[in-house]
Structures are given as structure tokens and as C-alpha cells.
Amino acid sequence: MDLTDTMIEAPKETKREQAKARTRRALLKSALLLYSLEGAQGLSMNKIAKGAGIAQPSFYNHFESVEALQDELCAQLKDSYLSPMRMSWINMLKDYATLTDEQFTQRCQQCLTMIFDSAFQNIALFQHLLEDRPRFSTNRFSANTENQSSSNTGLGNLIIEIQAEWTEIFIQGLRLSNRSFERSAVNLCVDSAAAQVHELIVGCHQQRYSKQQAIATLSTSFDTLFANFCKDATLVSHDADREG
Q: Which one of 2, 9, 15, 215 counts the least CB within 10 Å of its CB?
């Protein structure tokens, strides 16, 4: 085969790669739609493949398993959710001690609006993610796992993964403000904040109150939460940060 033949065949390979990429995206889109409509029980390989317009055996040309597809979809959803707002939250936490009440309220409500807008872009997805997140026994050392979720990976774990990312965002803000902290205290703070956000997003969807009311309530609550946390944190070098 001479160079001319190679040059002629190269575009064909590119087209095949592009077609494969389109099918891969179609599978991810199909899985997202199924999960939004049916939750975890809707994510069968047959349904996902059918929604993407391919035969089930062809699924393996793109993903090793449904679990592998879920892992990639999780990574994409997490990135698209957190990337637009990450630095806004980090900077607000970094500047918290120097903000006036009005400045904090404005910035906090802007940050919260991004969270609410993201959730309401696909509220059915958000609700299924809440429903499918792992449920653990109140006794963490209990051998009885009956109340635990059978799903420890994939979309069922996305809410937990996002909360872990929020912990890191909080920590980055504290470090930039030169404050020490116990990681366990940050985890409790994030857990408390996340529970409030989840409850009020669902409440807005159920029309128990408006988005503006929910965001105003959360802004006041977060101000108290951050104030109490930062009051206990000490201004020190980063080397004093403890995992806790």
C-alpha cells in the first residue's frame, strides 16, 4: 500500500470514529433519559441500547457494562453540575469573614440560584438521585445490611459523590482564608447544608414555597452555619489543617 492509499483511507477511519463517538453519546443520553423516567430499575442494557437505536450486542462495542456506562455518566453529570459554580462558592467561603451582611446575602443567593437552576433543569433526575442514594443503618457497625442500598456505584451514588466534592470546595475556601479545620467538622457542615438544600428544592417542586423564598431561607441558614463554623476555626497556616 502506497502513501496515496493511506491518505485516501484515513478519512474513512475518522468517520468510523466519529460514528462510534455519536453512538456512545446516544447510549449515555438514552441512559440519562431512562434513569430520569424510571430510576435505577430502568437501566437495563436492552432498554439503553434500544433508546440509542442499536442492537443490544453492539452495546459492548462502546461500554464493558451498564455499570461502566453509569460511571462515565456520573462523571459527566458531576462535572457539568459543579464546574460552573465551584469557584463562586470557594471565593465566597474565602471572603466570608470580610463580607458585609448585604454582600454575603447577594453572593450566597447567586450561588444558591445556580444550584436550584441546575436541579430544575431535570427535576425528575434530581428526585431519582435522591431516592436511589445509599441508605445506611443508624448503627454503622451493625452486621444487618438490610436497610442499605444495594447500589454502591453508578448513578445511585452520585449524590454522595457530589457531597464529597462540596466538602473539598468548602475546604479549599477555608484554606484560602488561612483557617484551620477538622475535616469531620466540615463533613457535618456540608451534610447539614446539603440536607437543607435537598429538602427545599423538593419543596419548591411541590409548590410549598417559591424558589425565592427557599433561597432566602437557605441564605439566612447558611450565614448562621458559616458564622458558627468560622467562629470555631482558627487563623493559622495551612500546615495545621487536620484530617479529623
A: 2
